[in-house]
Amino acid sequence: xxxxxxxxxxxxxxxxxxxxxxxxxxxxxxxxxxxxxxxxxxxxxxxxxxxxxxxxxxxxxxxxxxxxxxxxxxxxxxxxxxxxxxxxxxxxxxxxxxxxxxxxxxxxxxxxxxxxxxxxxxxxxxxxxxxxxxxxxxxxxxxxxxxxxxxxxxxxxxxxxxxxxxxxxxxxxxxxxxxxxxxxxxxxxxxxxxxxx
Length: 197
Prior knowledge:
By secondary structure, the chain is mainly α. It is built from eight helices and no strands. Helix 3 packs antiparallel against helix 4 and helix 4 (91-105) packs across helix 7. The protein is globular.
């Protein structure tokens, strides 16, 4: 091969590599440590992060609880977030909804529990058909039950300025009104993780 053509080809490839590096950004370390590809988190530039100040604007109240979530529970988190967006409400509303569902059902879409059932409560939010929340089929649909909860939340004057447990209790009318507070940190973490997915 002609050495001039070879020299031009090498310079052309080097130029492309340099231009690619300039446009892609500087390399900060020449000898990177190998990383397990499964452990790398990818942040996309078109997905801005959630303002964490909006998630817990009043601080948490009391000791916080946390549970490990299975795949079904995680899907229910995503369904609550999707329904919150569909309703036109913000990340704080999703935090209130998820904390409520954590307290009521541990994010499990519960059917009738027989003798252990609280009256006719079912679904993520333990809503009752006899109290006008909808049919059994409706309240065990994560989107419907979330939209029903959020409709109730929208009707609470000043809910954004209330502690989470008071806002949730005003909608749910629970016998244990302070129990929602313990889930605020985990609910906020879940919204921060899944809101922009």
